[in-house]
Structure formats: C-alpha cells, structure tokens
Amino acid sequence: MTETRFQHDLDGHDPSEPFTRRSAAYTSRRLLRRARRLLGDHPALLPLVLRGTPGSPKRAITAQTEAVIEGFPRSGNTFAYFALQDANGGPLPVSSHVHVPAQVRRAVALGKPTLFVVREPVACLASLLTAAPHVRIGPAYDEYIHHHRLVLPLVDDLVVGTFEQITSDFGVVTDRLNERFGTSFPRFDHTPENVDRVFARIDAHYEELYGDRASERVVPRPSPVRKAEKLWLTEQLAAPRHARLLARATEVYEALAARAG
Q1: Digit-coded pLDDT (tens) for 24-66
Q2: Which of 57, 139, 194, 213 has CA atoms 20 to 30 A from the CA of 236?
Q3: Which CATH class is domain 40-257?
Q4: In this predicted model, what pLDDT tens digit does every residue of 192-226 receive, in sequence order?
Q5: Are 227 and 126 in contact (CB under 8 A)?
Q6: What is d(CA 142, CA 26) in angstroms, rounded to the nearest whole number?
Q7: Phi, psi (deg, nearest 5) at residue 157
Q8: Contact residues for 258 (Cβ-Cβ < 8 A; gap 6+)
Q9: How far apart are CA 50 and CA 47, in angstroms?
C-alpha cells in the first residue's frame, strides 16, 4: 500500500488507516447530499433538485429534449453523453447527469428515449468515494441500492446499458436505443481517435463547469492519480463487514444488467 495518507472519514474507521480523511466541512456536505437524495425520489420536486445541480438549465427535460441519459454517479453517464454528442457531429439536446430516480421517472412518463447506465457496485462506489471524499461507505451503499431499486420497475420503458458496454462499444448501446424508441441517433465508432476526442471534451467540460475546482479526483475518466486510493477503497467496499450491503447492491445491479442485452 502506498505510504501517501489522506484523511477520509469512512464509517468511523481507524484514522490511522490509509486514505482515511476527516473534516468538519464534510458534515454539511453529507446533510445536503441526504436532502438531495430525499427530494430526488419525487418528480414533482425535481425543480428543487435541478436548482442545486451545476449546469441545471441544460439538464432539465423539456419539449426539445431528444434523449435522456441517467444513472447513479460514476456509472458511465459522462462517456455516454459525450459519445452520443460526438457521433452526432453537433449539439444534441440530451438531458443527463441529474443522478436522481425522479429524473428517470419523468423521462419515462414523457416517453423520452431514455438510457439508464449501470455499473457493478464496488467499482462504481470506489470511483464515487474517490471523487466525493465526504461520502461514507455505508451511506454510499444505501444510496446505490435505493437508486437502482426505484428505477428497476421502469426497465420495460427504457434501455439499460452497462458501464462495460458504454466504455467499450457504445455503438451497440445506441443501436438498442434506436431500436427501442424508433430513433436514428448516429452510431459512435469506438476507435482510439474517437475515444480520445471524447475524453478531451470531458476534460474541457469539467474545466468550464468547475474551473479551478476541477481536479484529477473529480473528472470521470481513467487517472493514475486516483489509482492507489481506488484500490484501497475497493478493498474496504468488499470487506466482510459490508458483505450484506454488497449482496443487496449486487442483486439489484444484476437485475438491471440482465436487461442490457
């Protein structure tokens, strides 16, 4: 294990553990996150959620919205969004990155072509906890399970894409979206050049959105800077003390991923 030591507050673990970080400022961030989760279950409360979401005017579902891409954070949302934009060759009105079940419910109710992205829980939560160090392991599992359970009853009215499908052959996912909704979104060709261009667009987007606050910890793409911490978090997430939570998270993930074709 690397000798670098961060101080994350993860379930009250021994502060001498690697990557365990504590900060009084995290308490308020946790409270805000919990409030957002509670509001995010209900489509009627979406305006309140969007008000606190960066770039929210572009995320709201409107009459002009041609597609909705949603999922739990760090599941492949960003790559899917920018790959679809890249394949289109120009701006495409896509709503994405609200990260609450109510947004999916609204999209389905309006009959919008909807892609819900899923990622297996340990990898997904390791990425989330690296980017959001104020989040604790137990609540992160609870969020993951709750989010996916609320979306599961909607699977017949949307398309599910796994992280692996989205990041290795997004064209196949686009084909299923077009088949399900009768759309004609251009197919993303998963060449190294196209993938590099998508990652460049992701970097530029996060720099524009967060400015100096954009960092290697936050931007959703592969990064050697985060590697050691993710490895440690992966160990913690898969530890025996979290076995029950992992089993519940895996169960709902597999139920959704089974619909990914």
Answers
A1: 556 556 656 666 666 778 888 788 787 766 655 568 899 999 9
A2: 213
A3: alpha beta
A4: 999 999 999 988 887 776 665 544 445 555 566 56
A5: no
A6: 18
A7: -110, 15
A8: none
A9: 5
